[in-house]
Amino acid sequence: MKAVAIQAFGGPEGLALIDLPAPDPGPGQLLVVAEAIGVSGADTLIRSGALAGYGFKEGHVPGSEVAGTVTAVGDGVDASWVGRRVWAFTGTGGGYAEQAVAAAGEILPLPAGLSAVDAVTLGSSAVVAHFGLAHARFAPGESVLVRGAAGSIGIMTVQLAARGGAGAVAVTTSSAERGQRLRKLGATHVLDRSGEGAEDAPSGFDVIIDVVAGADMPAFFGRLNPNGRLVAVGAVGGQPPADFGTRMMAAFQKSMSFATFSAATVPASDRRAVRAGQFAAASRGELRTVVHDVLPLEQAALAHRKMDSGEVFGRIVLTP
């Protein structure tokens, strides 16, 4: 089968189309022939080598989510899955391929009316958005700022905060055009990347969901209300400064909170239940998926160049 592997850490040119044996599903696993493959910010970080310290090596096949048809099952898996169209979480890799394996607990059938492309646009991102807001203890009426709102996680966070009754949903983004698109998804205030630029925006926020992290993250503690909570759900801008906590300590009397959030800490059964509800909502048109581009698998390097350039609004999807 065809797959894309990281031949050398660094730029997108380190990705290469290669031939690999088709995987066999082991006990508790299913084999999925992919129709669509999601491209995420985590994929670009792995490709760059930034996460090599976590055990990723050159030769790794990136990609964590695919949608397609089950063609085989391993021991202990109900054979009735064969022939069904599903979304599948493949873990920390293996998704950039014509066929991929996933654990039975990480498979979800696709509802009628939801395409494979929409499934991988929504599948991981919307779950992170949902549980990220929950981790921040978001409540109706509270003000929310989504930092880095033009990516798939940010777009879903905007929609879910608006649907959840937020008093205000502000976003940081790089252009007025992106801001207008985010307003159509539920944003009420558009700020620049520094968190400024809208005179009518709240001076402080109860919740900040941060997809970016990076060097500028500490400045956003100054945008939190008393008892405000900032939750980092991504780090597409890299790690924050080592002393970022000093900004919080300087505002000790505001009782602010900082947390990271990874969906890996949520039980699979809970992720599955929430994702099923989100898939159903999307199939009814209640949640909007935003697809920036659909590219063939062999153009994975182009997809990563687009991601690295910051031009992507929504999700890039690869198709074998």
Walkthrough of the structure:
This protein has helices spanning 41-48, 116-135, 152-163, 176-184, 245-250, 268-283, 300-309, and strands at 2-6, 15-19, 29-39, 65-73, 85-89, 99-103, 107-109, 143-147, 168-172, 189-191, 205-210, 224-232, 257-260, 291-296, 315-319. With 320 residues, the chain is α/β, with parallel strands linked by helices. The strands form three sheets. Strands 3, 4, 5, 6, 7, 14 and 15 form a seven-stranded mixed β-sheet that branches. A six-stranded parallel β-sheet has the order 10-9-8-11-12-13, with helices on one face. The protein has a two-stranded antiparallel sheet with strand order 1-2. α3 links the parallel β8 (143-147) and β9 (168-172). The longest helix is centred in the middle third of the chain and has 20 residues, at 116-135.
Features:
15 strands, alpha/beta, 7 helices, 320 residues, globular, single chain, seven-stranded mixed β-sheet
Detail the topology: elements first, then pairings.
Blueprint: E1 2-6, E2 15-19, E3 29-39, H1 41-48, E4 65-73, E5 85-89, E6 99-103, E7 107-109, H2 116-135, E8 143-147, H3 152-163, E9 168-172, H4 176-184, E10 189-191, E11 205-210, E12 224-232, H5 245-250, E13 257-260, H6 268-283, E14 291-296, H7 300-309, E15 315-319
Parallel strand pairs: 8-9, 8-11, 9-10, 11-12, 12-13, 14-15
Antiparallel strand pairs: 1-2, 3-4, 3-6, 3-15, 4-5, 5-7
